[in-house]
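Input:
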Amino acid sequence: MIPVNSVLQVGSFPEIMQAEIDQSLKTVRLTNPHEPVPAGSYEAILTRSNTLIPESLLRQIPNLKVIACCGVGYDNLPLDYLKANSIQASTTPGVLNDAVCELGIGLLFALLRRLPAADRFARSGEWQEQAFPVTTTLAGKTVGIVGLGRIGLDLARRLEAFGVTIAYTGPSAKKCAYTFYSSAVALAEVADVIILTCPGGPETEGMIDAAVLNALGPNGYLINIARGSVIDESALISALQQNRIAGAALDVFESEPQLNSAFIPLHNVVLSPHIGSATRETRQAMTRLAIDNLEAFFNHRPLLTPIH
Ligand code: NAP
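Output:
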């Protein structure tokens, strides 16, 4: 049982998530994390991984013991502050793998087969004048995955069905049949397509830079379903403008929801508005798991999916 008004809900939640929350608990809401915290005695915060939680917010909640975050990245949380103040935190890993992998595969084909451009071409009547330009086949290509974790591995398994060779990079080699490369540059040298599924945060910031893009080369494609911070966006924009890579599909951006306007006129980029986990089933499952973590905390049990 979660005590009434002991949970501060921070950030905005889509209707489907709010409905799931309202069925289980009564929260106090703070939509803008930079506004003062409403008076109350909160032990828990419920938030989403796209809401940046500033330390200044947490300092206003002296009784805070736990943060339940919907999403799997936790680069939005001030981890040093949490550690120093013994505040636990949980995310919602696993339940969003299906949706994020499906988006990754969707973006992959949108990019290689130029589906958004083909749709515009068919609608505009241009088809009556000429045929749509030929594109390229995925089968036979090498797909390099940056971050072979829960999502990366699920994606690799799905991709096997398309007849590709899988390679990957990460902090260390895993026990698996795929070939490990010790750096993103080394992976980009062998890959036709690179897909990013690693965490955001300081350790991966700007990891996909000009050197990686040059190694990927003019026939290489980049897909980002991880975090915008992983790519050096200005290096990517100049590589796309100069056709030093074949194209990119991006679900996440450095300053989202603001887009760098240089992306807009480019024909070799497919853009989506951070919708990796944005399916009804997944958003409900994420919310449920976040609430289950809060229930575990208030029932003096260990969190189900804690951040270590
Ligand atoms: P995960 O299981 O923790 O996997 C992350 C993987 O990245 C791990 O294998 C990790 O290696 C690896 N990694 C860590 N540092 C790296 C580095 N410097 N270079 C390359 N690889 C590195 O997390 P997940 O559940 O798969 O989620 C991955 C990320 O996807 C999340 O952090 C989030 O940012 C993003 N995401 C995006 C969306 C979206 O809507 N687009 C939705 C959900 C998640 P080790 O195994 O050795 O630690």
